[in-house]
Structure formats: C-alpha cells, structure tokens
Request: fold
Amino acid sequence: MTTPELQRLDRAHYLHPFTDFKSLGEEGSRIIERAEGVYIHDSDGNRLLDGMAGLWCVNLGYGREELVAAATEQMRQLPYYNSFFKTTHPPAVRLAERLCRLAPAHLNHVFFTGSGSEANDTVLRMVRRYWALKGRPDKQWVISRENAYHGSTVAGVSLGGMAPMHAQGGPLVPKIAHVRQPYWFGEGRFKEGRPQHRDAFGRDCAAALEAKILELGEENVAAFIAEPVQGAGGAIIPPESYWPAVKAVLEKYDILLVVDEVICGFGRLGEWFGSVHYDLAPDLMPIAKGLSSGYLPIGGVLVGDRVAETLIDEGGEFFHGFTYSGHPVCAAVALKNLELLEAEGVVDRVRNDLGPYLAGRWKALEAHPLVGEARSLGLIGALELVDPASGERFDESLGVGTLCRDLCFAGGLVMRSVGDTMIISPPLVITRAEIDELIEKAQAALDDTLARLGDPITDNQEESLS
Ligand code: PXG
Reply:
C-alpha cells in the first residue's frame, strides 16, 4: 500500500491513543515502517534517531534477533497457556525468578500483567486487600501526586494526577488524593517572590505529603505511589532532599510505598531500578515497558515480603488476574531481554559511561538562549524552554514546545514535548557517537525554533514541516 492509501485507511478506521481524532484526520499520520538500533524509518524514506526509545520502552534498541528467536521458539513450543487453576509454565516461572534476583533483596514475588496500567490496577487492589487482611480495613486512601502518570485504565487515570485525563470519562476511583509534585523548575524556583533552593522545595513537597496524611487521618491512608523520576509528566528529577524526606514521613505513619518503575526500571537511571538509585526499598514496584524492551506487551508488580507474606499466609484466594498474566511468549521475550541486558553490561554502561557522557553534553545546551534548564539522570533528560527576552516560561498557548518537537522530527530526531519541556529517553544501547548526533540535532532544532518564534503558529504545523 502507498503512504496516501495507508493514511486514508488510518483516518477512516483507526482511533489512535491520546489523539485529537479530528485534527489527526486532517493532517495524516506519519507511518513508521521499520527500525534498527536507535533509528526508525518512515514510509517517506526518512530515518530518524529515536530519542524516546519508542515510548520509553525499547531499552535494548530495535532489531534484536535474539528476541525474535526467543518469541519464535516459544510460539512453537507453547504459544499460550494460562497460570490460573494451579497451572504454570517454564517461561513465567523463570522470568519471575530472574526478576526477583535483579530486584532489591526484600522483593521476592511478582504478579504478572499485560501492561503498566494493569500493574497499577493490581497495586490498588493489593494495597487495599493487604490492609483489610491486617485488620485495618479503613486504610484505603492512596496518595499520589499532581501531574503523575500511572496509566490509562480507570484505576490508572485515578492514581495518575493528569488534570485533562481526570476531566474525561469519570467518575474516578474514590479515595485517591494528590499532593504537589517535586518539580522545582516549574513550581519551586521561587517562594513568596524569593528564589528558593531545590532542597528546601523538596522538603516542602514532603511536608505537603505529611499534611495530606494528617488531613485524611493516618489510620485511613494505605499507600503513597510515585515514580522515582516522573517520565510523562516532563522528566522531572526531584531535588536530592525529596526522597529521604518522603521516606521518613511514610515510615512515621506506617504507609506502604509503591514505586512505579514502568519507565525508570531496567536501566533507565543507571541502576536496574530507580528505587535502587534513590534507595527507596518500596513495598510494591509496578513494572512494564523496558521489561521486554517493548517487543511484546508485558508488565507486573514486584511485591515485597511484608505484603506478599500477608497475601500468601492470610489471604486465601485473591480474586484478580488477566488472561495474559505471565503470557508464555511475552515472558520468554522478557527473560531473554533481561539476559541480554545483563550479559552486555548495559545497565552498568548507562551508570558509568553513557549517563555521565550525556549529562555533560546535555548540560551544555543550557547555553542556548531558549533553554532555562537542562537536566538529566542516566538516560532520561529534559530541556525547559524559556523566552530569551525574559528568561521566563512562554505562554503555553503559543505552543513553542510543539513547534520545537515538529522541527526535531523534520531534522531527523524524535524528541517529545510535554508543554514547553523537551524530553529524551533514548534506547540504552545508544553509543557516544549517536549521543553526539542527538545533541547536534537537538541544538539545530532549538536554533530553528528560535528563528521561527516570530511566525504565527498553526495547528497543522507538523504537516507543513514534514
Ligand atoms: N506508569 C508509568 C510511570 C508510565 O509511564 C504507565 C504506568 C502505564 O503503562 P501502560 O503499559 O499501560 O501504558 C506508564 C505509561 C507519554 C506516555 O506520553 C507515557 C506512558 C504511556 C503513554 C504515553 O509519555 N507511560
């Protein structure tokens, strides 16, 4: 099929995720046909450096034959069987064992799901169930954060803190509250008109959590859920003071900690889990994405001993599970993915070499007049776009972030925009030379954005640029 034919059928039948259906119909989709390493290719013959690893997931890069072989072999052997009704199969057992070995020592069990959203649905049911079994049925409230992303199912949306998502398709799941996010550049640079130190802001955010716990009543609060570094919210790296202060609050009131590792897990921050980087020792860890490098859909919840022992010893049947929990082909691919990440030393390379290398080159972008802050940790990074005239953020309605994103695409780089925050999260197998290319293309897109700032911004910018 030709590109226009595919675009016509796409418009006629395909409702895309997180998409304004009407405007996409008018503009037409970019069609991605194939990929290798850190590059994707579209149907117009363009090659783009994928600075987002698909959607934060292709950690091992594209075109890994070992993963293809693992899937093929498992499909021949046993394409599907469930693990309900006292059955199991080798790939799921072996993956469970491997995950528990890689995770912090007190996490020794895993519940499999098909996605990160299902993992967070599982979390919600598990934490409430845990406290009920402990004779504390009132401990039902879960505290999350504004601008958090925890998925798109009803529980995922409710746990997340995305206001536009909350506004659609409600009502949401009851007894979920949100506190402020540790987003220093966006919300903490100034306090009462005066510049504020990052660490003071981090402690303020932890204090807001404590205030919310006291408002709800500590006897009613089951868990706090958060990403180590917020991904979809804008690659928000919390101040160093934040996590230690949050942990102290949770311990004080005996509240479970759920660390959503869907983006940070499997090497993104230079450790197997973001929880290790920040020394969080969570009770529950939802995972997905990088677990299979996105080659097949699979997620899960790693469960700490405290919760697992209660569910196992005191719980009886837990009425929860999915047709594809522990799917054998997905599990076989995930297992091979973990084996390759280990065998190739990918996580160590992110920590010791690629992360520091990116940090140096990324930080230098702060010299650009459009960049108010350049931050990174491991292989996640963000640029805050600001008005060169004032050094302050643009009016969001100007769509400067969208313009910059479109110019990145036009220049051969996939970089995301979240408002006026530009995001990267490339495959973990990226080389130093490819990081150099990413930086050059980002720099060129910033220059082009600056040059275009005077132009009127239109809804169909992408079409006019591509
Ligand atoms: N938790 C986190 C931290 C995520 O980033 C999910 C849960 C849900 O996972 P599933 O597999 O159900 O999608 C995610 C997903 C974006 C974007 O725009 C990010 C995600 C999904 C869709 C879009 O950055 N993250």
